[in-house]
Amino acid sequence: MAKDPLSEAGLHFDELNKLRILEPDVGQKTTELKEECKDFVDKIGQFQKIVGGLIEMVDELAKEAEKEKMKAIGARNLLKSVAKQREAQQQQLQALIAEKKMQLERYRIEYEALSKVEAEQNEFIDQFILQK
Question: Coiled-coil stretches, from where to where (predicted)?
Answer without folding.
Answer: 79-117
